Amino acid sequence: MKMNLVQAIGLALTQEMENDPSVILLGEDIGEDGGVFRVTEGLWQQFGDNRVIDTPLAEVGIIATSIGLAIAGMKPIPEVQFDGFSLPMLDQIYNHAGRMRKRSQGKYHVPLVFRVPHGGGIRALEHHSESLEAFFTHIPGIKVVTPSGPYNAKGLLVSSIRDPDPVVFLEPKRIYRAIKEEVPEEEYTIPLNKAEIRQEGSDVTVIAWGAMQKIVKEAVEKLAGKYSVEILDLLTLYPVDRNTIIDSVKKTGRCVVVQEAPRTCGYGAELIATINDKALLSLEAPVQRVTGYDIPVPLPKLENYYIPDVTRINKAIEAAMSF
Questions:
Q1: CA 31 to mean position of chain CA atoms
Q2: I want to staple 219 with a disulfide (CB 3.0 to 4.6 A). Which of 91, 193, 209, 310 is the partner?
Q3: Residues 83/170, Cβ–Cβ less than 8 Å
Q4: Looking at the domain that runs over 2-182, which CATH code has it been given?
Q5: Taking a C-beta distance cutoff of 8 angstroms, is the pair 208, 291 a contact?
Q6: Over the stretch 278-291, which tens digit does the pLDDT of each residue have?
């Protein structure tokens, strides 16, 4: 049946909670209220307050408690209301969640999934629109996943819940209800180390993730018949599927990377470094970057000027093609 991102994630949570009593949810207002974006709506009524736990407004407490529960054998799924609020949690994620397996020489695992509404585009207040993927991918021991639509959201979340190690699951809030896709009701998984070629092409590779996939698709549609564009959807940012990236760039010889986050030290820079390491001699032009700017995400009136759009993406594609 057709679902949006909210419904697909909710279905994955429901099915995994039905299948495994060790799966529990923790977060602010996720119980009776169903969360800020209503992703967990109905789960408190179905599973009760022992498994869908409304926490105090204390982000550090949410993640620290979840780490302890995970070490003790549970599978907690903590939620932060907005990505900007996750910064106080980085201490626990970096120093404990990411290190526990190594610290204990494999005796303990931390099978938690940290759900994070991610990115801008919803006209939110300050601290509500950040794109912090570069923070999380820099932490050893953490997997980082970001879906781009309802179908892959469900499969990726199920895989994340079943993974023995901590996963940061970045949910692009801009597309929570902007896309509907056919999503099977039966269970399925999507690997946490495989990118997807959304569209085959031969002239230029465009790499994006999360909400930027929708904008890239719109941009490429405007160039239909002019260039043959290959679109790569990373899905998992760490461990990233380097082989698919390199194979695509070697085939096309040109590449554009699109990220919503600020430019300096952004995740796209790591992708470009990887391409330079493994496919430099195949490049016909410098890799282009389309990014947010090195400023805090502007408040609503200026948000559209900050987030990469069709015009900026197509300008970068033209620059790569005309070099």
A1: 23
A2: 310
A3: yes
A4: 3.40.50.970
A5: no
A6: 999 999 999 999 99
